[in-house]
Amino acid sequence: MKLKLFILTLFISTLAFSQTKGTISGVLTDKDSNNETLPFANVLLKGTQINGITDIDGKYSLSAPAGSYVIQYSFIGYESVEIPVTVIDSETVTLSKALGAAGYKLSDVVITTHVNKQKETALLLEQKKAVEIKQSIGAQELSRKGVSDVATAVTKTSGITKQEGTGNIFVRGLGDRYNSTTMNGLPLPSDDPSKKNIKLGIFNTDIVESIGIDKTYNFRNFGDFGGANIDIVSKTHTGSEMLEIGFELGMNTLANSQKDFRLQDGPSKTGFSNTSYPKNPFSSYNFDTNWNTAAATPINTSIFIRGGSEFNVGENGKLGFFGTASFDNEYNYTTGVSNGSIGLNGIPRRNLNFESFSYNTNTTVMGNVNYKINTNNSIKFNSLFVNTSSQDHQEFEGIIDSFDIASDGGGYIRRSNLDQTTVFINQLLGNHSLNERTNFNWGVSFNSLKNSIPDRMQNTLIPQNEQSDPDVKQVSDNNDSENHRFYQNLKDNQLAANLALDYKFNKEDEDYRGKFTLGYSGYTKKVGFQARQFNFDINNAVAQPVVDKNNIDGYFNQTNFSNNLFSIKTFNGGLAPQTYDGDQNIQAAFVGVEYKFTPKLTVVFGTRGEYIIQNIDWFTNISKGTNKFDKFEFLPSTSIKYELNEDQNLKFAASKSYTLPQFKERAPFQFEDVTEVIIGNPKLYSSTNYNADVKWEYFPKSSEIISLTAFGKLIQNPINEITITSATNDISYVNSGDKAVVLGAEFEIRKNIFEKDTENKESLSTGFNASYMYNNQDFNGQKVENETDLTVFFSKTEGKLTGASDLLLNADLSYFKEFSQDKNVLATITYGYFSDRIYALGTSGRGDLIDKANGSLDFILKSKLTKNIGLGLSVKNILDPTIERIQDNQNVLVKSYKNGINFKVAATYTF
Amino acid sequence: MKKVFLSMLTLATLTITSCTSNDVATETDPNVVSLDPTNFKGTLEAGKEATLDASKVYYLTGAFIVKSGAKLTIPAGTVIKATENTDSTVRYIAVSQGGQIFINGTATNPVVMTSAKATPSKSDWGGLVICGKAPINTSATAGGTASAEVSDLTYGGSDTADNSGVIRYLRIEYTGYAYTSTKEFNGLSLFGVGSGTTLEYVHANHNGDDGIEFFGGTVNGKYLVSTDSDDDSIDFADGWAGTGEFWYIKNTAKAGIEGSNNGTNGYATPMTNATLKNISIVKGTLANSEDAIYLKEGAGKWTASNVYIDGAFTKGLKIKSDDAAANENITNGNIKFNPIQFANTATGFLPSEYTGTNTTYLTVGTNTGAGAGAAAPSWTTGWTAGL
Q1: Rounded CA gap, A601 and A159, in Å?
Q2: Closest Cα partner for A730 from A720, A722, A738?
Q3: Separation of alpha carbons A572 and B179, rounded Å
Q4: Hey, is the C-beta of B355 within 8 angstroms of any chain A C-beta?
Q5: Min distance A540 CA to chain B CA atoms (Å)
Q6: Would you call A25 an interface residue with chain B, using a CB distance cutoff of 8 Å?
Q7: Whole-prediction pTM value?
């Protein structure tokens, strides 16, 4: 009613004062939000001073002298649309338009109400405005590129790769220990006792609004930094009610071609398992899960529901709710060659063919409440629950050790494993504008994580008499652990808090030239680890029967136990687990100043003081003890932004940071991996990292960017995981040399090839990023010997960093066509490439293990059929290249397999 | 300068003394410590000496480590029994580089290290580990070091004449504890032990892994007995350069003698250089044993004489055809078995897997081996068990 009055008034005033003028009016709507009206958007008659803003209902009205104009509509995060219009004296032209993503005129942005950070254009704008060097990938881009998890998401940005097999993320050639992961700025626990970061693959993109990647250090972040801080910004809801459900069905070509798809017996298909070791494991055979496999049908499914709504609370308050729940599962099958222990003569001691069956699930539930109390105060509560399970069953056949076990072939190893992680993240965040100058934001989180490996099984069979028939097998009696069951639990609870106060100063015109920031971050975590392994010790004083590899239960059972064919033992003789308990406490204070020296030049300088305490207690069958460690770090950082012109920035950042050894890397705790023993080194110490970046950014249009970055890193006393010289080839961690140097360049372009701005839009756009790196580190066996009790026989005196590819490429091409307001199609192809990279460093004259260069191609098709129904199709890993790992120097194949092509169809219904 | 050094040394000794936790000093000489027979574990620190009391049984309740500069004397007749592992700490005795052990058994009264279990079995406890400073061939540089079973024990170096003490008349039983996926203790492990060490009259019996293993080093081993091993009976590797005389080997699950040069690089130097004289290898009753002698991983140099092999082994000498370094060593005349006797073989027995051009590396003769062919030699009388 009020508005009608307003328009009437406007109309009347037009009539009253502008007799020679005409009027253009209409309604702007949001194409991406069910054509909700778009308030506060800009309307401009190009080439004039005539402009206006849409009202709360998206309505606008402009009066202008008669004539021909081009009217331009724009809004932050939205396309800017230009339409020719003719104004006739005393007449009103009605012109309404729906605005969509990808386009706005930056210079027109006057006010912002809600910036939708899911949109590529909005994130580009944020990147442009920031003083710091920032990079983000939003939900819109992830959806366009068909990305379903956060690990894959970050690899779509420049300079980041994911290691095949482990899923570890490498940023500019720097792996796990150099990176950190946060959600909404607060730290996340780790799901792997040997890793600093949680596997990013466990986060479904359904929960993501955007992912920020800071490859330069700034004082707000924790100082244990070298490569990047990856911040997952969780989705929230604003605007009108939304409810969406979806269903996906898919298959992998290799998994699907398996007639006998088999998995470990025991684990639930839901991904929630709760297996434990038997009560009396030694006195009789009490294991209740089978060694024999269970059959499975490899059809991939996915289902989700998400919704949100927003309510007005009082006069200025708004309460937004968002919830998402999903379940995904996926089957994979690979087969190929697995060789190992390749000596200088180039002969692999382990020479096996393998088959691997895997089944993964992900259950994600997230809810958040976003309470905007008024324009100055807001509070957000975010709660995320994720359960992931990763099951795999592997069978290896061939030579287990050419000098020892099944030396002429016929050896058989099978390993079944379930790795389950449950993480529960709770965050409360607030932002308060205390006055025009002062802003206060805070966040607290409590996270708990449980990881378990319940009931890992391994069997080793060898030919009963190699010389006669390798297929007549019996259980191997070489080492007790060749046949075992293993149970592991990891708990990680953490509490974290961030507080930051910003104070603006030196007001000039409407803007403040300076901003002062004072803040605190605290982070405490407790980690507890327990592992038990039950070994089946084969009695070689008696004749062992023939065992069928497909019926292991026919051997490991109560009857054979009673007949004393085998006994059940642990490494330490009892039920006590090997354990470690760690706590880490980091308390940090930071202060920073941002100052705009000229309209073009802004400088940020900050320092952070961090006090770190790390304690670990361990108890294994070989030793027990405590290791304490504390340290104070003083970390300066700076960012400089120079605006070359309206569309171009030159940015610089430099910082000092550090890399802490992980808990268990400092504890002389023998960590049992399946085939290797990893032991900590109490004399390991932290590395110091220096980083500098220069970046030129050019934003030709709101949805376009061209940027070029040059960066350099110096890491003093870098830490490497390496095989130490020992009687048993143990792996440990050492400060392996004096320094590592990384110098590189990154290039990024996003460009619209053509864009038709007709009633029904059509566009073709492309993105490309590339990074090229020089990287080198020295290896110094003498340094290791001087500083520790360990010795290392480095194969080389210098070499590349583990995980660093010289060249990384990402390219994508997207075609969008609109048929009508609710009917459109979006097709995208993406391509990613990495050049050769080191998987593990070589020792004792053996070459490095190298993952060979690889490229992957995906195709994603999404279509909106009606206002409610959407359909999708994706084909991933189209080229299906052979994945190869070789041992350098000797140039011998270590691993070779294919992953298969993944097909998926999806349907969504929006209410 | 000298004074400064001396006072530093004193200070260092004091520091170390104050760190000592498990030994109790007597009033007379602060460097002589007595050890608790009921709870035998801990460390014997630098500068300390301890002598066990032969009238008592020592119950090994954890790891006992003789550190560099410390001396442990075990008189004749002393019995050490490793208690059952119920508290997750493996029982073993280790001598660090620079430490010394004096096992002074006699032919009628040996020192015995065994399991305390009522019904003892293989792998009940760790074993005896000795680390010296003699050369190995696994290190990055000549004279370099490596880490032994337990990672804080270093071994290897350039002191060929290094002296880790005396081991005479020792019987060590029920060893071979498997404490990780890849690690099992041997009965007696000799890591880079130097030629100044005396190693004579040792019987490793009921071994969960190897009976006796040499990892590099230069120590000679005379009058060694290894019986009932789940792996090899006597094993040498990583550049062991020494003489083995009078070895009596019986009941082995894998090879009677396994000798290798280097698992990664068959050509690594210093190359294993074994002189073996008067050796008996008797197959016995254990299942699966196939090979009397395994020339493995480059094999190194072998000069073997008076070798007596008895029983239904599949092969006399095992040598992998793809082990180029080992085959070259035979072809080049670095490996000789002159003479060797194969007695009581089964049908299909293959004396040697070597198929190269050298036809004189092996001469068959009639031998006495360790003294009496397949039978226990007379020098085993009085101190061994179960032969």
Answers
A1: 28
A2: A722
A3: 7
A4: no
A5: 6
A6: no
A7: 0.85
**Could you tell me what percent of chain B has a pLDDT over 70?**
90
Residue whose entry in the numeric block shows the structure tokens 């059952």: B84
What are φ and ψ of residue A703, in 5° steps? -105, 10
pLDDT tens-place string over residues A800-852: 998 889 999 999 999 999 998 889 999 999 999 999 999 999 999 999 999 99
Give the per-residue pLDDT at A208.
92
What residues in B contact A732, CB-CB < 8 Å?
Answer: 151
> Tens of pLDDT along B53-93?
999 999 999 999 999 999 999 999 999 999 987 776 789 99
Given pLDDT bands bounded at 50, 70 and 90, which one contains residue A98? confident
Q: Is the pLDDT of residue A166 over 50?
A: yes
Across the interface, which of B144, B181, B320 has its CB nearest the CB of A791?
B144
Q: What is the pLDDT of residue A194?
A: 77
Q: How many domains does chain B have?
A: 1
B144 within domain boundaries: yes
pLDDT score at A294: 93
Using an 8 Å CB-CB cutoff, list chain B residues near A542: 287
CA distances from A854 to A160, A163, A257, A646, A802 (A): 14, 12, 24, 39, 17
Buried b (16+ CB within 10 A) or exposed e, A84-94: ebebeeeebbe
- Evaluate whether residue B14 is within a structural domain: no
Residue B190 to residues A899, B153, B195, B199, B217: CA-CA distances in angstroms?
Answer: 47, 12, 12, 10, 8
Residue B238 has φ and ψ, to the nearest 5°, of 60, 30
| Structure ipTM | 0.85
**Hey, is the C-beta of B149 within 8 angstroms of any chain A C-beta?**
yes
Residues 85-104 (B) with a CB less than 8 A from some CB of A: 85-90
In the structure encoding, which two tokens stand for residue B187, read together? 């009965």
φ, ψ dihedrals at A792, nearest 5°: -130, 135
Cα B152 to Cα A2, B82, B131, distances in angstroms: 83, 22, 11
Q: Which residues of B touch A343 (CB under 8 A)?
A: 263-266, 297
* B232 interface with A at CB cutoff 8 Å: no
- Which are the contacts of B3, defined by CB distance < 8 A and separation ≥ 6? none
A120-234: CATH class: mainly beta
Element spanning A493, H or E? strand A484-508
Concatenate the DSSP letters of all residues of A620-665 into one string: -SS-EEEEEEEEEEEEEEEEEEEEEETTEEEEEEEEEEEEPPPHHH
Structure tokens given for A520: 């605190």
Tokens 């027109």 belong to residue: A108
Residues of B in contact with A793 (CB under 8 A): 138-140, 144
Could you say which of 2.30.110.10, 2.60.40.1120, 3.40.1180.10, 2.40.10.10 is the CATH number of the domain covering A2-108? Answer: 2.60.40.1120
Residue B305 sits in which domain range?
A: 34-380
Mean of pLDDT values over B240-254: 94
Alpha-carbon gap, residue B52 to B56, rounded angstroms: 8
CATH superfamily ID and name for A242-910: TonB-dependent receptor, beta-barrel domain (2.40.170.20)
Question: Would you list the domain boundaries of chain A?
Answer: 2-108, 120-234, 242-910
pLDDT band at A116 (very low <50, low <70, confident <90, very high): low
Nearest C-alpha neighbor of B241 from the set B261, B258, B267: B261
- Inform me whether the pLDDT recorded for A17 exceeds 50: no
Contact status, residue B315 vs residue B352, Cβ threshold 8 Å: yes
Question: Of B90, B145, B230, which has the smallest distance from its Cβ to A621's Cβ?
Answer: B90
Number of H helices, E strands in chain B: 2, 28
Selected residues 188-207 of chain B with any CB under 8 Å from a CB in chain A: 191
Amino acid (one-letter) located at A37: T
Rounded CA-CA distance B221/B193 in Å is: 11
**Residue with more model confidence, B216 or A155:** B216
Determine, for residues A781 and B85 on separate chains, whether the beta-carbon distance falls below 8 Å: no
